[in-house]
Amino acid sequence: MTSDPRPQPYVTAFGPDFTFAFDDWITNPAGLGEVPAESHGRTVGIIGAGISGVICAYELMKMGLRPVVFESGQFGGRLRSQSFEGTTNAIAELGGMRFPLSSTAFYHYVDMLGIETRPFPNPLTKAAGSTVIDLAGETLYAETIDDLPPLFREVGAAYQQALEDHAQFGALQAAIKARDAALVKELWNPIAQAWDDRSFYDFIASSDAFKKLSFRHREVFGQVGFGTGGWDSDFPNSMLEILRVNLLGLDDDQHYMVGGVEQVPRGLWTRSPDKMVHWPEGMTLEKLHGGSTRPGVVKVRKQGDDGPFEVTDRWGRVERFDALISTCQSWLMTTSMDFEERLLAQDMWMALDRTRYMQSSKTFVMVDRPFWRDRDPETGREVMSVTLTDRMTRGTYLFEDGPNAPAVMCLTYSWMSDALKMEPLPVEKRVDLALDALRKIYPKVDITQHIIGNPITVSWESDENFLGAFKGALPGHYRYNYRMYGHFEQSRMPPEQRGLFLAGDGISWTPAWVEGAVQTALNAVWGVMTHLGGHSHPSNPGPGDAYAEHGPVDLGG
């Protein structure tokens, strides 16, 4: 139920690393596949009740298998929506909050659940209304890019030129949209080879387009960036990750979920599938689990090479499973769980432990109404705007549900070192620091007189179940991602390593975006299905069937 039409053709579900159309696979009337009748009711343990784990459970239940989900923290993972006291639509989105319409596999489930979405108020969008950019003490007000000084347009043009000069951006994006797998591979594979060892900042600083400009241009690009705002916290990351964001439209046409994105995993938990085998009509994951998930996992073992997995939860209960899916943050498999080492190859443990996670902090307050829509009588401008700044707040976002209804301010959304500045502070101090920074930008606006209720905050790096917000691959990490992402195709693995599958956005090619979590979940579903003797429908081959031909390039080593 989006208020804007979907872009055509869809992008994210196809390439560039794995040129497979996930949206076609999950919407095909033939279904994802089937397991033989003798496998119906066989058990699959799933570690983690985030969107990846819940989708795995939902799709496997449809096939007649018995998923059992373990969760050590909060249901929903990083799709975490917290309501302010006494409200339903005043929501603090503590994790994922903006979802590009190109994320077609994710939106398959959003639409199935009938969740309403609206355009996200990103800087310089119609949904934002107005934007303020405050850099080096200079405050600029804009409703479109044309309202900003020429320097900002020069920065934008330089980045687009750099993409074209060094990544064949136009040709590659056209090939992805056309789903021309052969051309995508022809264009992308050499780029993966060339840019695996080079950072985002290297791409900017070494490009011919930016060499013609000043350091100030690069500095402004870091603070303001493209689409959702500043990207300097990603400057150390592999340029390949940023290229995927641009190529797949992940920073474009973003929406938010009215009532909170946590409705998606919770909706799947309580929804009875339209088509389901083995289980009685009306069966849901909630009913299958007796009302709640299992507690967190502390130990994983396997009986012999081909025997069941033994999973011990935090209360000492041991259950046995015919297959196992781990969707948790990768470090947890060596820090908070006693995972039998032989279940993964040593180079896989290397990849999981070397995965690098980025810090992130958000602080929200509820206000009595969207007062920012008031007009300054002297300037005629809105009194406050979506704000990008080099001050501690970095990004401030404004959400409303009507002119007289309570509204929500994300006072500060920051990453990496800016997030670490907040990490040791209590929520009240975080609010005070954010308000102090915003006072310098809006000296005539008293935000405090509008605040109602208690503030809400999160620092993902201090949560023992996450240890960070999302993966941010460094230069040289492509090979790690190659190992993790392709692990679901297990035909060449030794017997003791088969039957354990990995999923979640941290092993995807698009970390920090929910589409990566959804696609790796679907990979794991295919893996479990084939491991238990099943197969895709001949007319609807799955990701494992297509992997040899359409999988990512192997850089060796």
Describe this structure in words.
The protein has 557 residues and is of the alpha+beta class. Helix 2 packs parallel to helix 18 (514-531). The chain starts with 21 loop residues before the first helix and ends in a 7-residue tail after the last helix. Residues 535-557 are annotated as: Disordered. Pathway: Plant hormone metabolism; auxin biosynthesis. This is Tryptophan 2-monooxygenase.
List segments where confidence is low: pLDDT < 50 over at least 5 consecutive residues: none
Question: What is the spatial order of strands in the main beta sheet?
Answer: 8-7-17-18-19-16-20
Strand tally is: 22
Largest sheet data? 7 strands, mixed
What share of the residues lie within helices? 25-40%
Judged by helices, strands and strand pairing, the structural class is: alpha+beta
Shape: globular
Radius of gyration: 23 Å
Q: Whole-number average pLDDT?
A: 94
Pfam family, one: Amino_oxidase
Pathway: Plant hormone metabolism; auxin biosynthesis
Protein name: Tryptophan 2-monooxygenase
Region (Disordered): 535-557
Characteristic terms for this protein:
single chain; 557 residues; alpha+beta; seven-stranded mixed β-sheet; four-stranded parallel β-sheet; 22 strands; 32% helix
Helices, strands, pairings?
Elements: H1 22-27, E1 43-47, H2 51-62, E2 66-70, E3 81-83, E4 91-93, E5 99-100, H3 104-112, E6 117-119, E7 131-135, E8 138-142, H4 150-167, H5 169-177, H6 181-195, H7 200-206, H8 208-211, H9 215-224, H10 239-247, E9 254-257, H11 263-270, H12 285-288, E10 297-302, E11 309-313, E12 318-321, E13 323-326, H13 332-335, E14 338-339, H14 346-354, E15 357-358, E16 360-367, E17 386-389, E18 395-399, E19 407-415, H15 416-422, H16 427-441, E20 451-459, E21 470-471, H17 478-485, E22 500-502, H18 514-531, H19 543-550
Parallel strand pairs: 1-2, 1-13, 7-17, 10-14, 13-22
Antiparallel strand pairs: 3-4, 5-9, 6-9, 7-8, 10-11, 11-12, 15-21, 16-19, 16-20, 17-18, 18-19
